[in-house]
Amino acid sequence: MGLLSVPILTSPDFGSFQNMAKAPGFQRSVLAYSLLFAFFYLNYHVLIPKFYSKKKRWIYAALLLACFLVVSYTPDLIINSPKPPSNLPFPNNPPHKTAPIDLFGFRDTFIIQFSMIAFLSILLRLDHRLNTIQNEKLKAEVNYLKAQINPHFLFNTLNSVYALTLKKSDEAPWAVLKLSEMMRYVVTESHAEKVSLEREIQYITDYIDLQKLRMGNHTNLVYEIQGNPSGQKIAPIILINYVENAFKYGVNPDELSNIRIFIHIESHSVELIVENKITVKNTSFKEPTTEGNKNTKKRLDYFYPEKYQLHIDQRDNFYMVNLLIDLS
């Protein structure tokens, strides 16, 4: 409203609507400011999110130039009237009248006005994006805290440890130590924004080792790590969800199970491939799994925007996840 009121407030015929509405200069000014108004929303809703935010800066600059030419020349093309001499601020301005001060200057070209509108829309869009990211981060943190330790895994592990103690197995102290290390990692280190990739992989290894306690000869497990994780950093507890799903749906004592977990590390990236045969079709797992996948996707979007590739292939009795993260 403030933008569209500028032509009215700066018109030399302000106070006489009929004279003002008939003046070609006023008509040209209203059209130009209306185009600026439209450009603001076009820039805010389309150009910035599709080009500026995605770092397509040259395309964005070219589109800005095109918009500037449209805003500058369209009024003159539509409203045909001779331009006023350069010493007169408004067309058809009588010599005895003094036009009000033009709030922006360069009225004919709209350079300053256009630049201000473009800059303002970028600032508002970036502020909106920042607020959205902060809200999503808070939601992701809450969901992440809720799901740090999968209760099914904890109960199953405690049951397995209990069975080992009844048998007085030498593996019982080892299992308690593994579970203790996992709990310590979750409680003390996983709140950091980035942790050592080596420690994150050790967490996954401990998880798999504990899962082996409840697996027998009916499960064929392949777990491979290639590359050196030393010196690399990653967001904590961001890979484990897909590993958990493999054991949740891929271990069945009444059916032959196949689980393959492959971690490939390069200088600035880590790739996780998880494949498993679906042997458990328990609907009670479906909702928590869906929520866990959504939370992991949100955390990936937050920590690695446009720096990861996630591919999930699900068929009747087969599930595969391929996640590649650029850690640079």
UniProtKB/TrEMBL annotation:
The segment(s) forming the Signal transduction histidine kinase internal region domain are 140-217
| Lineage top rank: taxon | Bacteria
**The keyword Transmembrane is annotated on this UniProt entry:** yes
Q: What's the short name of a Pfam family annotated to this entry? A: His_kinase
Residue ranges spanning the membrane: these are 30-47, 59-79, 110-126
Q: Name one GO cellular component term.
A: membrane
Task: Tell me if Transmembrane is a UniProt keyword of this record.
Answer: yes
Gene Ontology molecular function terms on file = phosphorelay sensor kinase activity
**Protein's UniProt name:** Signal transduction histidine kinase internal region domain-containing protein
What organism is the protein native to? Flagellimonas olearia
Q: What is the lineage of its organism?
A: Bacteria, Pseudomonadati, Bacteroidota, Flavobacteriia, Flavobacteriales
